[in-house]
Please model this.
Amino acid sequence: IVDPYMASYGVENPIYAVIQLAQTTMRSELGKITLDKTFEERDTLNTNIVKSINEAAETWGLKCLRYEIRDITPPDGVKKAMEMQAAAERKKRAQILESEGAMMENANKAKGEAEAILARSQATAEGIRMVSESFKTEGSTEAASLRIAEQYIRAFSELARSTNTMLLPSDAGNPGTMIAQALQIYNHTYKQKLTLGSPGPSKRAEEADLSLGMPSVSDLGTFEHHK
Model:
């Protein structure tokens, strides 16, 4: 009480009046925020209630120095709803974290796959460049012919092991003929390259083709054997 006269004649029961005012003000302030906020912003809520009480109780000769909400006990239904809401929020945060982790994992995998593809492409390009350089050196044509002949024979041996159908040359019992046919295919392809204007020793290719005296590609035959 700061003014006894106003407290005596301004209101019939000043203590009761200020209690009712405090309760009304508290309900008004609580209605402005959510229930979760009441637990987090209790100090701010108390300050606002004190300010509202003093504005109304000034004419009563009263002044509120402090107001404190000691406990908030919601109904059982509200408690249950709050618990469900809290559980839902925790589940939501967990799902967000899980999705972010999965997104980062996919991004890392995609980055790794892209780097692997780039590395393979660079290795392939380097291999092609090295092969192209090797064809410019002396004796490269003969080395390539030998390599193709080896691969030709190896391909037939692998095919015989891996499938029920075998593709065989017309004279499978003569390895020399098989090699000659492989070289004939290579020389035919190489001469086509020279005809299109690609640089290279055309004379050497023609001489190699003539010196071999090989049968044409049409001499190749096929034989199907089904187990």
Remarks:
- The chain has eight helices and no strands.
- Residues 15 and 91 are 48 Å apart (CA to CA).
